[in-house]
Design brief:
single chain, mainly alpha, 8 helices, about 0% strand, proton-transporting ATP synthase activity, rotational mechanism, transmembrane
Amino acid sequence: MSGQVLAEVPFPPSVDDIYPPALVGGAEWLTKFSLFLWLAALIVIVFFLVAYRSPKIVPTKGQWLAESLYGFVREGVAKDVIGHHGLKFAPYLASLFCFILVGNIFSIVPFIQVSPMAHIAFPLMLALCTYFLYLYQGFKKHGFFGYLKHATYLPAPWYMQPLLLPIEALQTFILQPVTLALRLFANMFAGHMLLLVFTLGGFALLNADSLFLKPISIVSWVMTILLTFFELLIAALQAYVFTLLTANYLAGTLADEH
């Protein structure tokens, strides 16, 4: 039976594993990835609503956790990176951090075992939200042409400007949102593929004809367990990095000088 099941599982795993079919016929938008995104948003919203339902001076465990998460982002990211202007962005940054964190943790949850962020569309949309936010803040503070100058002009000799201006424009208006999305996507995609390789590799070795290869399946599954803990670390780290870079881009936009 196990051999029959294994024969039906494509090995090695391919990129097609990241593009699941629609859950309902005719509804191409409703895949398990979009379902997990709604679930991640629901978890974050319900958690904070319940945690702050009746706040107490001596916080409950849920209230303490909610306050710690928000305080970590507000103090450690918003204020430290952006400065005194950062407090008004703290709700956005905290929401971004918690949403990405929950979405990333799905990669190690049994029967889910994949993060929606392993699909490039979702990190790209989050990056575009950040992109339009810092563009709006830049145009609001410096004016349209003032922000274009702020974002692209460096205090350098005039003869260097033809080289520096397109490089700075490329970095600010194209590379920053692209790399922000790709960094999150690539890490979660790679983690998912590694877990797939070692999990399915264990079954492949267990069902191999060689008696020498069968015990090695245990090594493969041990690696899967170790990589699961490592994936948890990466999930938290990538949520933090995405939030930190968002704050850094906002700080650069709101700075008085380039």
